[in-house]
Amino acid sequence: MKTRHVLTLVISAAVFAAMSAAVAADTADKPGGKGQHQGACAKDVERLCPGVQPGEGRIVQCMKAHQNEVSPECKTDMQAKEERFKHAKEACQGDVDQFCKGVDPGEGRIMHCLKEHESQISAKCRSAFPHDGKQHG
Question: What is the DSSP string of 26-91?
Answer without folding.
Answer: HHSPPTTS-----STTHHHHHHHSTTPPPSTTHHHHHHHHTGGGS-HHHHHHHHHHHHHHHHHHHH
